[in-house]
Design brief:
globular, four-stranded antiparallel beta sheet, six-stranded antiparallel beta sheet, 327 residues, WD40_rpt, mainly beta, Methylamine Dehydrogenase, Chain H
């Protein structure tokens, strides 16, 4: 590997996101740091007054940064920070390709149009939402919380579909094909529903599942909650039913992972011991030891994001490195 640039951080990073020319880091101190993804130059450092930040997401255009925190959510642009709403605990913000933004804001989902104006809001549920995801056509949103996942159609204040799971649901993902809705849960179980009916469970995990994501093609699904990174194959008509996952190992426990854009199944994982590994999922076989494409040699990494097809942004307690993967 080769380090292209390093940028210092004042506090432990809670989340990192990269798109286009911008890399954004949310700090546990409540500060947002925006970097030039090509050289690491500090573009902006602001404290929006949201207390601890929980998530950060750079827009597909690479011109705006959505952020969520313990006291609300907002959007940063080059003209400055605009706090759209304060007061509610917000966990996640997700952009659609056309510039719309969905936010898990307290007990409701809030959606903003591409011009930043409020578009619609769901009725408050009984519990605080833990995650939100756009559906395959990016018209509806799925939101997780206590008791399962709820799907909201465009401008629908009430859910049009509900996928029940007892207890706290911590994260949600919708496949690119639109066939599958998946959740990660407090009880160390991953849950998979067909959008047209039927479901299955993925038990045997070690800890609560805090992140579940499909790769861009919708074939592969990865989740935290294990000492290795389980990756499930959704390529068949029945999804992962009756199959075994690829187990991408070598970590104490997986704390973060990121799929490469246009990935063909390439994923980077971060372990609790601080190591970063890169994997080609199609090259692995269920039931056999996995072999990484690269081991980056870190022992203090906490978050990871892709800058481009061969460059990773590795967030450490006191800095961010842009790392080029060598052939």
């Amino acid at each position: 590997m080769r380090v292209l640039w390093s940028a210092p951080l004042a506090e432990q990073p809670a989340a990192i996101s990269v798109s286009g020319a911008l890399a954004a880091v949310a700090g546990t101190d409540g500060a947002l740091r925006v970097l030039d993804s090509e050289c690491g130059r500090l573009v902006a450092e602001v404290n929006p007054g949201l207390d601890m930040l929980t998530d950060v997401a750079v827009s597909p255009s690479g011109t705006a940064v959505a952020l969520t925190g313990a006291r609300g959510h907002g959007v940063w642009e080059s003209s400055g920070i605009l706090v759209k709403e304060s007061g509610a605990w917000c966990t996640r913000a997700v952009w659609a390709d056309n510039g719309r933004l969905a936010v898990a804001a307290g007990k409701s989902v809030v959606v903003y149009a591409a011009d930043g104006s409020p578009a619609w809001r769901t009725e408050p549920g009984r519990h605080t939402l833990t995650d939100v995801a756009w559906d395959a056509k990016q018209r509806s949103v799925a939101a997780s919380g206590y008791g399962g996942v709820r799907m909201f159609a465009r401008h629908s204040p009430r859910p049009v579909h509900e996928y029940a799971h007892a207890g706290p649901n911590l994260c949600v993902a919708v496949s690119a094909t639109g066939r599958w809705v998946c959740s990660g849960n407090q009880d160390a179980v991953g849950r998979v529903w067909k959008t047209n009916g039927g479901d299955l469970q993925m038990p045997g995990l070690h800890t609560k599942v805090t992140k579940v994501r499909f790769d861009p093609t919708g074939r592969w699904l990865a989740n935290t909650g294990h000492s290795v990174l389980p990756v499930w194959d959704f390529g068949g008509a029945s999804g992962p039913a009756g199959s075994r996952p690829r187990m991408l190992g070598g970590h104490g426990s997986v704390v973060d992972f990121a799929w490469r854009g246009c990935s063909l199944g390439v994923v980077a994982s971060v372990g609790s011991e601080g190591e970063v590994r890169v994997w080609s999922v199609p090259d692995q076989q269920p039931g056999r030891p996995a072999v990484p494409l690269a081991d980056l040699g870190y022992d203090d990494a906490v978050r990871v994001a892709w800058i481009d097809l061969d460059t990773l942004a590795v967030a450490r307690p006191d800095r961010v490195d842009a790392v080029r993967l060598e052939p």
